[in-house]
Every structure is written in C-alpha cells, then in structure tokens.
C-alpha cells in the first residue's frame, strides 16, 4: 500500500466518522427543538409566538405541533 492509498483511505474514514457525528449532533438538536416547541405549546403559547420566541419558521413549528397532536395517548 502506498502512502497515497493510505491517505485516501484515512480521508474516507474521516468523512464517514464526520457524517455519523454530524447526524447524531443534528438529531440531538432536532429533538431539543421539538421538546422546546411542545413545552411552550403546553404552556399555552400560540404557534406564531413560539416561532418568534425560538427564532424558527412558523411552518416548522406548526408541523411539529401537528405531529405531536397525532401521537397516540
């Protein structure tokens, strides 16, 4: 194996690890955002007020609330 081949393999391995870490971090952020939206909704805030307070798009907030309303239980 040449140094160039080893470097290419290491670069690809680094990319794969970076993608996985990015996915996990993004998922954690998404879950936190959804929980913040639901918490504020349960506190009696309207969707637009939640969007303004969290700096999010109103459509995103509405989608999270629709998904939450559709959960069983």
From TrEMBL:
Tree of life domain: Bacteria
Region ranges (Disordered): 1-20
Record's protein name: Flagellar assembly protein H
Lineage: Bacteria, Bacillati, Bacillota, Clostridia, Lachnospirales
């Amino acid at each position: 194996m040449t140094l160039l081949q080893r470097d290419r393999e290491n670069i690809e391995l680094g990319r794969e690890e970076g993608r996985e870490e990015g996915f996990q971090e993004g998922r954690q952020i998404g879950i936190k955002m959804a929980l913040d939206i639901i918490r504020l909704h349960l506190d009696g805030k309207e969707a637009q007020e939640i969007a303004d307070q969290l700096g999010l798009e109103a459509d995103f907030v509405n989608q999270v609330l629709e998904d939450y309303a559709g959960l069983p239980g």
